[in-house]
């Protein structure tokens, strides 16, 4: 069993993990940087340990600092949240070596999914559809040219160590491939310390659809349906919803079964998100597997009733999925999440400073995940997420209505936020129609 957990994170996700631990009677240990001493995760955890200065590299990303805290507090497990060390296979391995459970997939799974070329090959062999592309890292510009011609232009050059939109280059004709290959290779070496790059057929104006999965340590994996995440700017998601508009229940069931079987065959355990691109014909192609709990997990919780973080803890303790998630799981209603960022609505620059007033919304069908409070200073060192507002209703129209009501009945003063942008999105005919793709924000100049 797990009796005491260290949360290697901050902000709203640290509070989310503390909440799940409370529900299970598990004691909690917060870690914090000097910039976070007045944070709610410090106040709400049973114990709190300062792990270093404000800079993430010296605190939330410091493996020695976090392992020392875990040893001092004598925890049986570490929950990494998302970001920071959540997908660091070396950290997961060190936890294991110290006799501390890592609440997430095995180090081997994390390492496999961190290499986008190997991940692609592994899930393809396991039966998940992938785009035409490289089976291995490209060895030369000549090989890139040869593969690109076989695939057919346009193609995209991606970094094996990248992900989330970093280190990609679109190539529309043979004349550009050599330059794109060399450029991508040198950028990848600098940015990720891994110069491996690969090719994929480029999909124009895709939708970004992802599937939530849970796996136990006994080989069972289930899918909990999809999330539509196409509304993003510079690869930062702004709003997510589930179900995806027009997504047929038969496709959900078919893809869910394919994904569950594939991930079971590769021994995937705990929570994960399988990302796909959907083309104009409604076909889905794997792009990445995120080996962590994601920011947008609450919309899946809303429509399935499954507590994903509590499930992560129980699965990490070795419980079987049949006990953790009783079946069948129905999808009920519609859920939308808006990520409220502390940012200038014109320049998108992060807006740190004193949160003079913070009266978050509430009411029927509204959930707010936030570690903010009035009088708190938004530190400039970390990401700019101040709150996630989740609206759940019997159908999409009512979910949109509830979200608009919530965003207009929340007082946030002292910092600039993305709330005006969210209201423009929710009011736009394209969003209301449900027909949009990853170009939504740029198409409409929102
Ligand atoms: C693509 C693509 C088109 N074709 N791959 C960007 C994030 C990273 N996870 C994958 N990305 C893309 N990969 C092929 N073969 C277009 C994108 C893409 C995108 C994907 C999801 C959400 C928003 C996006 C915005 C621009 C490009």
Distance between the termini: 49 Å
Q: Which structural class should the secondary elements be placed in? A: alpha+beta
CATH class of the largest domain: Alpha Beta
Q: Please give the share of residues in helix.
A: 25-40%
The set of bound ligands, ions and cofactors reads: ligand MV4
Mean pLDDT: 97
Description of the structure:
The chain has 446 residues and is of the alpha+beta class. The protein folds into 3 domains: 4-103, Rossmann fold; 132-201, ATP-grasp fold, A domain (Dna Ligase, domain 1, 2-Layer Sandwich); 207-443, 2-Layer Sandwich (D-amino Acid Aminotransferase, Chain A, domain 1). Helix content is 35%, strand content 26%. It contains 16 helices and 20 strands. The chain has helices at residues 11-24, 40-44, 63-73, 89-97, 107-114, 116-125, 141-151, 174-192, 249-265, 297-304, 308-316, 321-324, 396-408, 419-427, 429-433, 440-443, and strands at residues 4-7, 27-33, 47-52, 77-79, 101-102, 155-163, 166-171, 197-201, 207-215, 221-233, 236-242, 270-278, 284-290, 334-341, 353-354, 357-359, 366-369, 377-378, 385-393, 411-413. It has an 8-stranded antiparallel beta sheet with strand order 13-12-9-10-11-14-19-17, with helices on both faces. Strands 3-2-1-4-5 form a 5-stranded parallel beta sheet. The longest helix has 19 residues, at 174-192. The protein starts with a strand and ends with a helix. The relative contact order is 0.12. The mean pLDDT is 97. It binds ligand MV4. Ligand MV4 is lined by residues 131, 156, 163-165, 200-203, 206, 208, 232, 235, 275, 277, 287-288, 438.
């Amino acid at each position: 069993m797990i009796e005491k957990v260290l949360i290697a994170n901050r902000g709203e996700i640290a509070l989310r993990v503390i909440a799940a631990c409370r529900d299970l009677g598990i004691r909690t240990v917060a870690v914090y940087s000097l910039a976070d001493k007045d944070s709610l995760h410090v106040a709400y955890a049973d114990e709190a340990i300062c792990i270093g200065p404000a800079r993430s590299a010296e605190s939330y990303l410091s493996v020695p600092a976090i392992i020392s805290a875990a040893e001092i507090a004598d925890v049986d497990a570490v929950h990494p949240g998302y970001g920071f060390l959540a997908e660091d296979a070396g950290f997961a391995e060190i936890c294991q070596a110290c006799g501390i459970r890592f609440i997430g997939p095995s180090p081997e799974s994390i390492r496999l999914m961190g290499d986008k070329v190997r991940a692609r090959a592994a899930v393809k062999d396991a039966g998940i559809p992938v785009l035409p592309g490289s089976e291995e890292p490209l060895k030369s510009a000549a090989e890139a040219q040869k593969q690109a011609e076989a695939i057919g232009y346009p193609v995209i050059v991606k970094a094996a160590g990248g992900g989330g939109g970093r280190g990609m280059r679109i190539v529309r004709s043979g004349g550009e491939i050599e330059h794109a290959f060399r450029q991508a290779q040198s950028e990848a070496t600098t940015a990720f310390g891994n110069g491996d790059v690969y090719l994929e057929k480029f999909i124009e104006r895709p939708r970004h659809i992802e599937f939530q999965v849970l796996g136990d340590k006994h080989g069972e994996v289930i899918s909990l349906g999809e999330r539509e995440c196409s509304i993003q700017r510079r690869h930062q998601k702004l709003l997510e919803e589930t179900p995806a508009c027009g997504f047929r229940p038969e496709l959900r069931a078919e893809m869910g079964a394919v994904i569950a079987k594939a991930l079971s065959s590769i021994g995937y355990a705990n929570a994960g998100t399988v990302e796909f691109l959907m083309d104009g014909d409604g076909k889905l192609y794997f792009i990445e597997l995120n080996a962590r709990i994601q920011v947008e997990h609450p919309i899946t919780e809303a429509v399935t009733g499954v507590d994903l973080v509590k499930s992560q803890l129980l699965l990490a303790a070795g419980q079987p999925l049949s006990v953790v998630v009783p079946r069948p799981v129905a999808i009920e209603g519609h859920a939308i999440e808006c990520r409220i960022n502390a940012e200038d609505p014109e320049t998108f620059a992060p807006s740190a400073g004193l949160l003079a007033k913070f009266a978050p919304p509430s009411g029927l069908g509204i959930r707010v995940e936030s570690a903010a409070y009035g009088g708190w200073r938004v530190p400039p060192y970390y990401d700019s997420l101040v709150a996630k507002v989740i609206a759940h209703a019997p159908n999409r129209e009512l979910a949109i209505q509830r979200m608009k009501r919530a965003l207009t009945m929340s007082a946030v003063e002292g910092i600039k936020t993305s709330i005006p942008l969210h209201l423009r999105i929710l009011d736009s005919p394209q969003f209301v129609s449900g027909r949009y793709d990853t170009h939504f924000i740029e198409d409409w100049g929102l």
